[in-house]
Amino acid sequence: MSGADRAGGCGGWPLFEVFVRGKRGLNHVHVGSLHAADAEMALHAARNLYTRRNEGVSIWVVRAQDVTASSPDEKDPFFAPSGDKVYRHPTFYPVPDDVPNI
Fold it and tell me: pLDDT by residue (tens digit) across 27-42?
């Protein structure tokens, strides 16, 4: 059950997306959503819901309405412009024979 399900609507409180950075990871990972009156309340609720076993070292909460994302349906046209930049790929550069990995 997600934090949003537990909130039960919460009288029109905004929805927040929760990201946690684990002890071993370098990146914040989306772990769920919850409703809260404000960002500070969302941060405390996220800590209680998503880091009960001390698995996090950092939490981000972001209002869901403030998240802008690309659509998987637009994957090809959205990411296609980077495909024609051959200098971004290691095949463009000569690799010395004594270099085992890039």
Answer: 999 999 999 999 999 9
